[in-house]
Amino acid sequence: MGRCRLEIDFLPGGSYSTRMKQYGMPALGLAAAAAAVFAVCAGCAARPAGDEVVTPHPWEPTLGANPRFSKELLRVFYDEDQWKTVSAREYDAYVTFDAYVKDDRTLRLRGIREAYPDLSMASLARTYAAHARLSPITVGSHIPPSARVHVVFYNLEGPNRRALVFAEQNPGAPVVERHGGALYLSSFQF
């Protein structure tokens, strides 16, 4: 009997999509596996879209004050004077995505982890997040490495609008244990 890999994407609004790739599995076995996945997912309680990913802000809206952004990660890209400027600058919005790192260094965005002040910038943030590239670091597993992509928007009401995109593989791991290519930073003017 062959093997198959199931990919499930949970989408906003409580829906989901599935893809199954077969490796030497007969068509009947694939259909049975798909039916089993549908039966399992039909009983899953999906997270409702909207309010749960929108985050109230109890701190001042800067990279330095927001505890959700890794200061150790960002300091890798800036010297001390640049970091003081960047960390004190107020942002207008941000969207954070969970993702998988694919073998070709691109990211497969799974969904929105968090958004501030609302989801209005989510589609534009997804466009910029798709530009991120990370080198996959695996330990011989077929499970793709996880990543987190942050898109931070500045000066949305002014003429010089900017988006800062930074990504990290294996979020939560100490920065000193990460290898080159496991971090990404870029800036876009729009």
Gross geometry: globular
In total, how many beta strands? 7
Helix content: 10-25%
Order of helices and strands: EEHHHEEHEEE
Q: How is the main sheet built?
A: 5 strands, antiparallel
What integer is the average pLDDT?
78
Strand order of the largest sheet: 4-3-5-6-7
Number of helices: 4
* Beta-strand percent range: 25-35%
**Rg, Cα atoms, Å:** 19 Å
Distance between the termini: 52 Å
| Domain tally | 2
Low-pLDDT segments, ≥5 res: 43-51
**What structural category characterises the helix and strand content?**
alpha+beta
Describe the structure.
The chain is globular. The protein is built from 4 helices and 7 strands; from the N terminus they run ββαααββαβββ. The longest helix has 16 residues, at 27-42. With 190 residues, it is α+β, with helices and mostly antiparallel strands. It has helices at residues 27-42, 71-75, 80-88, 122-129; strands at residues 3-10, 16-23, 93-101, 107-116, 146-154, 162-169, 183-189.
SSE layout:
Blueprint: E1 3-10, E2 16-23, H1 27-42, H2 71-75, H3 80-88, E3 93-101, E4 107-116, H4 122-129, E5 146-154, E6 162-169, E7 183-189
Antiparallel strand pairs: 1-2, 3-4, 3-5, 5-6, 6-7
